Amino acid sequence: MIHTIFFGTNHVAKTVLQALIDAPQISVDLVITQPDKPVGRKKVLTPTQVAILAETYKIPVQKPKTLKNYPIATFPSCQVALLADYGLIIPQAIIDAFPKGILNVHPSLLPKYRGATPVPSAILHGETISGVTIMQVEKRMDAGPIVAQQTYGLAPDEMAHDALMALAKIGADLLVIKLPAYLNDKITLQKQDDAKAIFCNQFTRDDGHVDWNTSTLKIYNQYRALMPWPGIWTMWNETRLKLLHISPALISTHLNNGQVHVESDTLYVGTSDGAVHIHELQLEGKNAIDAKTFVKGCKQIDEAQFS
């Protein structure tokens, strides 16, 4: 039996933890996750998805705000710890507490897209191939030696969240398969080439501002990458207009960049090489509506300009 400790917090971590729980040769003796956080308008303190899952299986859970002064001596005796989508810095002292270190499930083909947003960043940059990496954790972010990798083809219309969930399952299965060989020193670790590293950070709302001077594909990739947060938006009549659902469009009418065109209650906006079809949108401070309703409520929308 492989005894381990698991560090994780969000969507990917929940998928990985479930795979570890389901694996008959693996025992998760402790789960460490982030503290409960206020959720919703009433700010109800809510445990992380990982905490909820662990408690369902009666696995001990700890929720430190930081690992800086964590009492390492209280860890269960384990050769290795496992990590996915945790969100807090792991001090070197904790990494060193495990003879075989800590293995991390990261949803990219490292050294590409080190950091917090690997999947949306890959889509935003027009990647058609992504993947997952199992690597050793070291002090530098996502820079440790690679234990295993598996590629994944991104569909042309695949949204970032859907791709992330697919990669989480692939990574979870890969970890379960490779862990025994890793512990028995049957895997040759691959050093990352730092010269090829690409870093990605958290997105802000400004990253969602659509530039109509770019191509249809680039704008569509921006939508695929940034929904639901921070989403994409444009300006119309000095008001922020959220674009909740869009797709590439093929129309015969030539449109200038950002020019709005209405055809049979269908809303199009010109790009540098074509047009985008707007299906659903939301004016700031208003409810989300479909494009047909929006067009009927805005008599002067045709030939307007988005910016």
Features:
elongated, Methionyl-tRNA Fmet Formyltransferase, Chain A, domain 2, 17 strands, Rossmann fold
Any idea how many domains? 2
Which consecutive residue ranges, at least 5 long each, have pLDDT under 50?
none
CATH level-3 fold name of the largest domain = Rossmann fold
Order of helices and strands: EHEEEHEEHEEHEEHEHEEEEEEH
> Which range does the strand content fall in?
25-35%
User: From the helix content, strand content and strand pairing, which structural class follows?
Assistant: alpha/beta
Oligomer: single chain
Total number of strands = 17
How would you name the CATH homologous superfamily of the largest domain?
Formyl transferase, N-terminal domain
What is the level-2 CATH architecture name of the largest domain?
3-Layer(aba) Sandwich
Report the principal-axis shape: elongated
Q: What's the overall average pLDDT, rounded?
A: 95
Strand order of the largest sheet: 5-2-1-6-7-9-10
Helical segment tally?
A: 7
Domain Formyl transferase C-terminal: 204-298
Keywords: Protein biosynthesis, Transferase
Family: Belongs to the Fmt family.
GO molecular function: methionyl-tRNA formyltransferase activity
